[in-house]
Amino acid sequence: MIRAVAIYMLTICGMLAASLVPAHAGRVVADLSQSNVSITSGFHGTELLLFGAVDGRETDDIIVVVSGPPTDVAQRRKAQVGGIWINVETNIWKDAPSLYQILATRPLADIANVDTLGQLQIGADKLKLQLQPEKPRPGTEKPDAGKFLQSFARNMASTGLWPAEVGSVKLTDGALFRADVQLPANVISGIYDVRILQFRDGVVFSESQTNIYIKKGGLSAMIYNFAHDYSLFYGLFAIAFAVAAGWLAAAAFRRG
Amino acid sequence: MYIYLPIAEISMHIGIIFGLGGGVGFLSGLFGVGGGFLMTPLLIFFGVPPAVAVATEANQIVASSVSGVLAHMRRGNVDFKMGGILLAGGVVGSSLGVMLFKYLRDMGQIDLVIKLSYVVFLGIIGGLMLLESVRAILRSRRPGAPRRKLHQHNWLHGLPLKMRFRRSKLYISALLPLAIGAFVGLLAAIMGVGGGFIMVPAMIYLLGMPTSVVVGTSLFQIIFVTANVTLLQSVQTQTVDFMLAGLLLFGAVIGAQFGTRAGALLRGEQLRGLLALMVLTVCLKLAFDLAMQPSDLFSVELLK
């Protein structure tokens, strides 16, 4: 049902876009089936429909980049010390996207060359991120971000937050496009950035941007806020609840 | 049906949570232990961040200990005086433990310390228990073998501050239970366990308490130690997941009742032998994981 409505709206959008925009200007109009996502107790990831219209040709391509709110991420390296494997090195990736997902009409290499993709930072291996040691000591060199980026992208892919595969975008008649944006269950709350790029002959022809707003909602928001804003009372409440539950259980089974 | 855990920030199938609670509850009822030493590694295995698993498990043990201690109180199997002194040590130990936990967490080594503590203590306790129960089983097959003395006297009985513990039929230095309480409290905070699996053997073999009052007294003091850990972790690290603890204890209290009934069908030394095997299995699994080269040498953690 939602999808039918979305496709209907998408068609209208397409017609509007086509009629309003001069043929040469190139323009992308995009919207999401849902731009506010609430992480409630039943949340187990979700799928959003991104749809829109471009003023383009059948040979044009679309690349969509979804990036989550920037977060510091600790990357740890294990090594064998005295027979066991322990963390020996920790570096912090500053303001890394907490989610990084790419969707495209064709394989990225067929759409644009490596330099263009690199300039636009499209692809987990092309992100320009700052890496610093967890405890900077004077005299030690900064870790080489380029050396660690590949393993970082692999680690993030295994968390599900940076899917390694490029998702698909369907472009119809060079005018209407749609794509399914997958949000895994472990997304963090914050403002997500969705960039839509229209490519023609290997270069960006036009682009557009929209946002997804994710926040905790319902009972999970209440518990989270309670735990962080009134941590003393939260602790006391957790204890009281446990004592009551234990007492109730003992009483119930004594009779039963 | 999946449920989103607000502090752990992961989504978990509700069947897994109830299964874990019920299964571990059954074993804890069967063997008379809190079950934290099984639950915490299992939670970590299912993707709960180690820090959250440890703090949340402390909260859940409060509930199962209350439930258990009430049954023992009705039978008069709780030595409150001994429990009180163990507890005084336990509060100091667990407070130090939470501080140490926070320090190690900031150093990025908390996972290693948790796992190493498990390997060392499960290995020692499991090994000792297995040895003891095998001996007991062999002895019971040889009727007429001489009975051992209630407890041996050694240098520990020469310490000052002697006190009389009527229920435990002991006249020993208060320093001993104080030290044991502090040590177990420290481990409880770091390992996310009640410490029953260390406390119970310590009470039997070090203090020489009669077995009948050991479990009840241990549970009595565990309530307060784990409550202290729950409170301190809530305030200092915000890692207690109330949703997870609530769902786990729901399964656990039911499982524990069935476990208690099943336990009545087995003999004491057989039970201890089985528990020892289980403890050693968990120990070997964790030791194996530490010794094997991980499939990926790198790991990531999102910082808030």
Concise account of the structure shown:
With 256 residues, chain A is of the alpha+beta class. Chain A contains six helices and twelve strands.
* Count of folded domains of chain B: 1
Multimeric state of these chains? heterodimer
**CATH structural fold name of the largest domain in chain A:** Immunoglobulin-like
Helical stretch count of chain B?
10
Q: Output the radius of gyration of chain B.
A: 19 Å
- In what range is the share of β-strand residues of chain A? 35-45%
Alpha-beta classification of chain B: mainly alpha
What does this structure look like?
The complex is a heterodimer of chains A (256) and B (304). Chain A is α+β, with helices and mostly antiparallel strands and 256 residues long. Chain A folds into two domains: 2-216, Sandwich (Immunoglobulin-like), CATH 2.60.40; 217-256, no CATH class. Chain A is 32% helix and 39% strand. Chain A is built from six helices and twelve strands. Chain A has helices spanning 2-20, 108-111, 114-119, 145-159, 218-229, 231-255, and strands spanning 28-32, 36-39, 46-54, 61-67, 70-81, 84-97, 100-104, 130-133, 167-172, 176-183, 190-200, 203-216. In chain A, helix 5 (218-229) packs across helix 6 (231-255). The termini of chain A are far apart. Chain B is mostly helical. Chain B has one domain. Chain B has helices at 14-31, 36-45, 50-74, 80-107, 110-141, 175-191, 196-207, 211-236, 242-263, 268-291, and strands at 2-5, 10-13, 162-165, 170-173, 298-302. In chain B, the strands form two sheets. A two-stranded antiparallel sheet of chain B has the order 1-2. In chain B, strands 3-4 form a two-stranded antiparallel ribbon. In chain B, strand 3 (162-165) and strand 4 form a beta hairpin. In chain B, helix 3 (50-74) packs antiparallel against helix 8 (211-236), helix 5 runs antiparallel to helix 10 and helix 7 packs across helix 8 (211-236). Chain B is globular. Chain B starts with a strand and ends with a strand. The model of chain B has no long low-confidence stretch (mean pLDDT 85). At the A-B interface, strand 5, strand 6, helix 4, helix 5 and helix 6 of A face strand 1, helix 3, helix 5, helix 8 and helix 9 of B. Strand 5 (70-81) of chain A pairs antiparallel with strand 5 (298-302) of chain B.
